[in-house]
Specification:
By secondary structure, the protein is α/β, with parallel strands linked by helices. The chain is built from six helices and eight strands, in the order ααβββββββαβααα. The chain has an eight-stranded mixed sheet.
Length: 261
């Protein structure tokens, strides 16, 4: 039993052969290395030999640390690290100048451990920081002038910096389920009217617990939007007979049949 537990903690070992067999060609012709849901606990060093890939998916594992050697992936345009156990990111991530998609949602990142070098990702279009432990957002993220979509949901934020709210190309923002003050909520609503609700992770990419949280919240929102009137407000017709599923289309015929069986 102890051996099995130790094996689980160690995680699955990824060899270069496994990594090579996990490379796929994406819809735009790029090379995508997909090592998601592999039970990995440490960053597999062997993949540094595949540094010419365009996309890297290490999501839904148990990785706690990304090494500084991530900077070797200079061609990388798409990096998915969501649903791991990351507590920090290396500053070297800021050297990935071709990166346009970065998903680090559902980890254990704090504001203190967000590298300032994130603001160097000048070509970044999509950034997901949701489901972490962020109590504030660095004003330096206002340097991401190409950013179009930003996820900040399920953190402990009380405000969003003006430098971020006023990003020139920002179209979609999800900052749901943060403890914003009432005045801050109104301020956000007034200043970000052009921004719509955004979920940066497709349902198929969420773990079971995260998917349930999102579905429950969606159901709550739908109930609020479609709010059905209470029973006390509904008109009462005690003498009205309701046809069952076998009733004919002609309701008059149905009523006559019920009166004269």
């Amino acid at each position: 039993m102890a051996k099995e537990k130790a094996k689980d903690q160690k995680g699955k070992k990824i060899t270069l052969k496994i990594a090579k067999n996990s490379i796929r060609i994406s819809s735009d012709g790029g090379r995508r290395l997909d090592l998601s849901k592999m039970g990995i606990t440490t960053f597999p060093k062997c993949i540094l030999k595949l540094d010419d890939i365009d996309e890297l998916d290490l999501s839904r594992n148990m990785i706690k640390k990304i090494p500084s050697s991530i900077q070797k992936f200079q061609k990388l345009r798409w990096l998915d690290l969501h649903s791991n156990k990351l507590e920090e990111l290396p500053g070297e991530i800021g050297t990935l100048q071709n990166l346009f998609y970065l998903n680090i949602c559902n980890n254990k990142l704090t504001t203190k451990n967000l590298p300032e070098e994130l603001n160097l990702l000048k070509n970044l279009r999509i950034l997901n920081l949701g489901l972490n432990c962020l109590d504030s957002i660095p004003t330096s993220l206002g340097a991401l002038k190409e950013l179009k979509e930003l996820g900040l949901f399920d953190n402990t934020l009380t405000t969003i910096p003006n430098s971020v709210k006023k990003l020139p190309k920002l179209k979609k923002l999800n900052a749901e389920r943060n403890p914003f003050r009432d005045s801050t909520k109104k301020e956000h609503a007034d200043s970000i009217k052009r921004i719509q609700t955004l979920y940066l992770v497709q349902e198929k990419d969420l773990c079971c617990s995260c998917l349930k949280v999102c579905q429950d919240e969606r159901d709550k929102l739908n109930k609020l939007k479609n709010g059905t009137p209470s029973l006390s407000k509904k008109p009462s017709f005690p003498l009205l007979l309701t046809p069952n599923s076998f009733a004919k289309d002609n309701q008059e015929e149905w009523r006559l049949r019920e009166k004269h069986p």
